[in-house]
Amino acid sequence: MICLVFSSVSHLFACHSLKFTFFFWRLDYSGISIIIICSFFAPVYYSFCCQPHWCLLYLSSITIVGILVIITIFAPALTSGTFRSFRAVLFFAMGFSGVIPAAHAVSLYFHHPQVLVALVYEITMGLFVCCWSSVLRYKVSREMETRYI
């Protein structure tokens, strides 16, 4: 829900001034980071609820990585164009860090049919992330701006 609120506020107030624009687009990206972090919690929690050490490890690691990404978004030194690829790689790494707990859960519970059903959903979500990452690569390269402007 916070992602939608941040996105709505960003699109509503970003046109106010240049200073507001930078702040609100950062707020929008932090909302995207929060939704990526939160999308990990249910699958990881329910996959490893019988193994609290793994659950704590995976949930704390994605939370720490997400907080570092949000700090990177708001860091003034990292907002220049030279760090554009770095920020994109951070988002990409944060999104694909779910492969490790998913592979671990499948290796532990492969004989359960419920895991295979959940795996189909996770693979579908991974395919959407792959599509998103190709758009991210295209956006980072700024090919549209260099070709048509």
Automatic annotation (TrEMBL):
Zn(2+) binds at residue 11. GO terms for cellular component: membrane. One of its GO terms (molecular function) is metal ion binding. Its main location: membrane. Keywords: Membrane, Metal-binding, Transmembrane, Transmembrane helix, Zinc. InterPro entries: AdipoR/HlyIII-related. Coiled coil: none annotated. The chain crosses the membrane at residues 27-48, 55-77, 89-110, 115-135. It is a multi-pass membrane protein. It is found in: Membrane. One of its GO terms (biological process) is response to hormone. It comes from the Eukaryota. Pfam families: HlyIII. This is Uncharacterized protein. It comes from Solanum bulbocastanum.
